[in-house]
């Protein structure tokens, strides 16, 4: 029974396996088969929620082994389950679920303003040799400088983007739009897939907002 | 992505720090303990912006230390899955390339680099398109999407992709 299920051999040998898995006759396969198929099954269920990479791996493994031909009922059941392959859902930003409610998402430009203020104070503190400025502060400031300087005035950017809130865009999505500096509405929908569902509702206000933001862009 | 967040921490202070400067000592200790650290939930604490509240101290039994609950506001940097960000390439090899965005390290595997880009080894290893129009090498700026994060004791490490629309090289250091 176990033999019919076939052994999960490395990729190169899979084509021979599909035609002649009954001819393979080693006892090791009996041990390997059930555990590997179980592992494969677990990964397969997880892959519908998890990454596309594991889904590709397990699907290719099951494809080559061709469990559908024979073997246990549960394995054929498995093969049937895997055949309607769903397109992997685009990865969506889910900030609200992971951070406490009091967390306020900041645009890189806003963060730059705050960190520069702190840096000025740190100059005074750095005279004290016991106080070391952490590396993450320097890196954070450098990053904010490189990404937060797209616009001349972050407060105007914020007030323009706030208009999108009434259309159902949340804080995190607004910040991604502000940081990415998109040029077209298509770019916004590509970068923030969670907005695609509201595309018809958002497209016009978004175009208006983007045209206003263009005026605020700093000439580099 | 940067966040402004209120956190709470129990600070232990040795009695030698008591006196007129108790609060300053407490704040200094908080900054030393917290700034530069990272956690899975909040990401990197980049800087403390203010102290909201210092609670009443509680003397610990057996030692003379006193515990103060301190509520403080800080700027944190936390990467999220699905986030788009711009990073600077730090190293390129045949497995992919490493990039840095603030305090966070990101790795983009060659499987997540568009198929028309191939690895070119040499003094300056890089990924180049077949027509040579687009190149990813050290110090290039790339826009990428994060697809996974891993938190260590001291740092956060991410996996990214440039295989989607509107992702890839922004700025080539050789042309600028």
TrEMBL record, chain A:
The keyword Oxidoreductase does not apply. InterPro entries: HRDC-like_sf (IPR010997), RNA_pol_Rpb4/RPC9_core (IPR006590), Rpb4-like (IPR045222), Rpb4/RPC9 (IPR005574), Rpb4/RPC9_sf (IPR038324). One of its GO terms (cellular component) is nucleus. It comes from the Eukaryota. Residues 1-89 are annotated as: Disordered. It is found in: Nucleus. GO terms for molecular function: nucleotide binding. The keyword Transit peptide does not apply. Keywords: Nucleus. Residues 96-220 form the RNA polymerase Rpb4/RPC9 core domain. Belongs to the eukaryotic RPB4 RNA polymerase subunit family. Residues 11-26 have a biased composition (Low complexity). This is RNA polymerase Rpb4/RPC9 core domain-containing protein. It comes from Trapa incisa. GO terms for biological process: DNA-templated transcription initiation. Pfam families: RNA_pol_Rpb4 (PF03874).
Automatic annotation (TrEMBL), chain B:
One of its GO terms (biological process) is transcription initiation at RNA polymerase II promoter. Residues 79-156 form the S1 motif domain. The keyword Nucleus applies. Residues 8-64 form the RNA polymerase Rpb7-like N-terminal domain. It is found in: Nucleus. Transmembrane segments: none annotated. It comes from the Eukaryota. Keywords: DNA-directed RNA polymerase, Nucleus, Transcription. GO terms for molecular function: single-stranded DNA binding; single-stranded RNA binding; translation initiation factor binding. GO terms for cellular component: P-body; RNA polymerase II, core complex. Pfam families: S1, SHS2_Rpb7-N. DNA-dependent RNA polymerase which catalyzes the transcription of DNA into RNA using the four ribonucleoside triphosphates as substrates. Belongs to the eukaryotic RPB7/RPC8 RNA polymerase subunit family. PANTHER family: DNA-DIRECTED RNA POLYMERASE II SUBUNIT RPB7 (PTHR12709:SF4), DNA-DIRECTED RNA POLYMERASE II, III (PTHR12709). This is DNA-directed RNA polymerase subunit. It comes from Trapa incisa.
């Amino acid at each position: 029974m176990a033999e019919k299920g076939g052994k999960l051999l490395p990729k190169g040998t899979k084509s021979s396996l599909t035609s002649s898995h009954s001819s393979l006759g080693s006892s090791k396969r009996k041990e390997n088969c059930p555990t590997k198929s179980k592992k494969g099954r677990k990964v397969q269920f997880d892959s519908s929620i998890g990454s596309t990479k594991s889904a590709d791996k397990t699907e290719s493994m099951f494809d080559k082994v061709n469990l559908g031909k024979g073997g246990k009922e549960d394995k054929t059941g498995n093969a049937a389950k895997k055949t309607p392959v769903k397109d992997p859902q685009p990865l969506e930003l889910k900030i609200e679920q992971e951070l406490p409610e009091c967390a306020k998402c900041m645009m890189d430009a806003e963060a730059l303003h705050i960190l520069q203020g702190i840096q000025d104070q740190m100059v005074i503190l750095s005279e004290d040799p016991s106080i070391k400025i952490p590396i993450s502060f320097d890196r954070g400031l450098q990053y904010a400088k490189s990404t937060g300087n797209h616009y001349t005035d972050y407060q105007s950017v914020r007030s323009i983007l706030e208009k999108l809130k009434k259309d159902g865009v949340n804080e995190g999505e607004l910040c991604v739009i502000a940081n990415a500096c998109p040029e077209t509405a298509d770019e916004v929908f590509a970068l923030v897939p969670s907005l695609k569902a509201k595309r018809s509702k958002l497209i016009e206000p978004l175009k208006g907002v983007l045209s206003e933001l263009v005026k605020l862009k700093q000439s580099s | 992505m940067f966040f402004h967040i209120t956190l709470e921490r129990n600070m232990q202070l040795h009695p030698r720090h008591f006196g007129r400067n108790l609060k300053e000592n407490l704040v200094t200790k908080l900054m030393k303990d917290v700034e530069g650290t990272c956690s899975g939930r909040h990401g990197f604490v980049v800087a403390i912006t203010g102290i909201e509240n210092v609670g009443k101290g509680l003397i610990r039994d057996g030692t003379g230390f006193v515990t103060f609950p301190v509520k403080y506001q800080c700027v944190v940097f936390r990467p999220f899955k699905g986030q788009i960000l711009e990073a600077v390439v730090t190293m390129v090899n045949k497995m992919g390339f490493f990039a840095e965005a603030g305090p966070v390290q990101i790795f983009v595997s060659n499987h997540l680099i568009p198929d028309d880009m191939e690895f070119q080894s040499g003094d300056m290893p890089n990924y180049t398109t077949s027509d040579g129009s687009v190149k990813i090498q050290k110090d290039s700026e790339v826009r990428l999407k994060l697809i996974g994060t891993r938190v260590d004791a001291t740092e956060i490490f991410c996996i990214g992709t440039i295989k989607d629309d509107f992702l890839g090289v922004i700025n080539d250091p050789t042309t600028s």
